[in-house]
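[Meeting: bench + compute handoff]

Bench side (C.D.) handed over the final construct sequence. Compute side (W.E.) agreed to return the predicted structure before the next meeting so the bench team could plan truncations. Sequence as handed over:
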Amino acid sequence: MPSLSSQYKDKLPQIGLAILLGVVFLGENVAVMLHAARQLQQSPASLPLYAITTSTILTLWVHHDSRSRSISIGIDQAMYIFLAWPITLPFYAFRSRGFRAGSLLLLFFVGIFILALIAAVIISLGISIGWAIVSTG
């Protein structure tokens, strides 16, 4: 049985990566909303950068999760998660945790996205109102 400190040590990278994922979602959503509010076109590199960042964070999360659960994943499964995470992440969640706990994990990731979206709307509205106030002088 692992000690309490090793359990926290195993969970720390997963929690950090989940927070990082939320920050990436928040940053991307704010950028999209501010570009739309200012009627500016986004850089063509922003969507691939967002996709690569999200895939990398989720792949690292699965790597640390599988290590903490003593599940062996090979390089091929890590590559599949990186390239097709909307399909392979639910597969990993259900396989590693079962249906109930896997569903809760997926709801957790959806919750991170929804909270980041709500925060981005509030931040974008605040910035847009600030721009309106400054522009009217």
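W.E. noted at the follow-up: The first helix runs from residue 4 to 37. C.D. will use this when planning the next construct.
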